[in-house]
Amino acid sequence: MSRGLMIPSPSVIKAAYSHRPIILNNSCSCQYPISPTHVNRFATSLPWNGNLATQNKSIIILYRRSTGPTEPSLGIHKKLDANIKNWCGKQSLPIGVAAYIVFQAVDGLVFGLLFKIFVDRFLGPIPSSEHEAAKSILGVYYPLVLSAVGSPLIVGRSFAVFSTFTFGIPYAIKRFSGNEEDMLTSMMRGFAYAVTYSWVSGMRSPNLIANIGFISALVYAFMFKAGEGTG
């Protein structure tokens, strides 16, 4: 674009139109394409100086960028997940399933680490005195709370378990059975998730693990039915 070129205001553009305006958007399938005759007719009616070919090209690009449809962006993380899943789908069943589960675990670990570091950076870590007070109140359930508010490594570990059972295990079930998850497998996944999460967090009482696993299985069954209703 030349230095002498000035972008006209909407009022100037409107004044330059004939009784049948020329729409400068050639990227929308619902409008007619712009012919060179239309472009020259529009450009020569504008009160500015400079090379007409450069001005015409600038006008078309400007309108195409501002009004043309944009392709949906998946994002770096979703593209990476799609590429990993595609690669795992081409591998043998054990290798593909194991690789995708490991990827989800590492993904959750990294997210948890960054999340906790970010929270501590802007909100500050929880004082040790509050940890001791919560420990005296919560008793045996304190490890569950600590898994969400502890050090970055503890929080990252918790996110790794969550990501593995939320995304990795359903992928494994689909690969092994060839079908989508049903209510029974959803309840089994919820029970296994609660047991694993409790064990990793340090709450390893058999009675507590069984109770939390049972409650988690019911919650997963409810979410499965709710998903069927909305689907």
From TrEMBL:
List residues traversing the bilayer. 97-119, 139-162, 208-227
Q: Does the keyword Membrane apply?
A: yes
Query: What's in the keyword line of the UniProt record?
Result: Membrane, Transmembrane, Transmembrane helix
Protein's UniProt name: Uncharacterized protein
Question: Species name for this entry?
Answer: Tagetes erecta (African marigold)
